[in-house]
Amino acid sequence: DPILEPLFNIAPPFVKKRAVSFEGTAWTVEVTMAREAARFAADAVTLVRVSDDGIRLSQQVGVSMEQGAVKSVTVRLPASLPEAVVSGPALREVRTSVKDGERLYECAFQSDVLGSEALTFDHDLPLTPTLSVPFVKVDGVARLQRFFVTDNRSSRESRVTESTGLEPTTRQV
Predict the structure, then answer these.
(1) Which one of 42, 91, 159, 163 counts the least CB within 10 Å of its CB?
(2) Beta sheet of 70-78, edge-to-edge order
(3) Could you give the CA distance from residue 135 to residue 76 in angstroms, rounded to a whole number?
(4) Does 134 sit behind a cis peptide bond, omega within 30 degrees of 0 on the bond before it?
(5) pTM of the entire predicted model
């Protein structure tokens, strides 16, 4: 076949047994699409910023798809916290409810998330001598990594007195 000869170099002892031929260009292929079960990971960064005016508790959740797509995610925080202001570049709407001592934030996106997306949950809290900082819980996540940052911009000393489930890391890492 003169068309295939420059594409394939067949060296002895092998010989060409079959070739591909096309009869015209109007051909189609039928493909069946099936929705895959969504599998995603999340990274959560908790920032506690202390100032003389109060405490800003801000948690950013980054959702990264590993398989499939999601239209919404549900994030849980303790109901004892005031309701958070939720924001995100692709966020369409947020519905909240309280169940078993937790506030559920059902966050719907503008379109299916195929890659990654971020949500931020902000709380403004009064200045108190101590604060127990909760971490977000994300329903249906395959892996959740959490990071904690504290920033003291007040005239008072602040320090972490107890941490559970956290490993210290250095600035270089």
Answers:
(1) 159
(2) 91-99, 102-113, 70-78, 137-138
(3) 9
(4) no
(5) 0.72
